[in-house]
Design brief:
Length: 295
Amino acid sequence: MNRTEFAPTSLALLAAVLWGFWWIPIRYLNEVGLLGAFAGLALNVGAGFFLLVWVLLGSGLQGLTWRSGLGALLVGMAVTSYATAISYTDVVRVVLLFYLAPAWSTIIECMFMGRRWDWRSLVALGLSFSGMLLILGDDVSATSLNGGDALALLSGLCWSVGAALVFSSRPVGTPLLSFAAVFGAAITGSMTVLAETWMDLPTPEISRVAEAVPIILATGGIYLAPIFAISLWSARKLPPALLSFLLSAEIVSGVASSAILLDERFGWVEMAGATCVALGAGVEFLLPSRTRRNS
């Protein structure tokens, strides 16, 4: 690893560990009455307040290209989908299904960014999708997926496309990119909340929301806003597949913390699925190609 790769690689790993604990404030807000998409929306709005101040004190709201803006919006959509999924299904399933992202990123790089398919790509995809089959169980179909599973898969796909767009666009300041992502997360969260309301799902009482404002602002400003900034700064520097692989370290912190703190099933099948997903994320970087060995 050269010096230019060290900082984004190290920060991406830090972001991965921190994203692994993202479920904790979500579940806390669920318990105080902010169910479904309300929890993620509230935390993204809290982070957006601090990021907007950061942007206005810096370069302002100018400079986004359509490519970087769309990429940031998709990253925000990924975060909202992930947060909502946590409210509807097991944390372990959300984390592991999201981390098909390296597989999506590999496909995107090969199809649209000039990368060549090789045996490592095929092994990585095979392991990733084998892990998905183990996690979802025997009956894998569109009808067998619950809402949380579908949102977790959508989250990983949106993250992969968004990271590819950010990486391939001209450089944009991290504050503006982060605010655009939070803005996208808030828009997606608002639409999801409207859909939940239309389906007559429970809505939080205003008094409960008011009581949660301090924790929302504290978590948004101290925790979520910095993670957005670190992740998107790294996305500007690292190819999508490498970034997704580094962020898959979240599997360790997310799965371990949820297994310890929650009464969720995590048996041999889930362990095997987690192993396959983790190996699928890392095989292309852990196994050098023949070209690299001979160079």
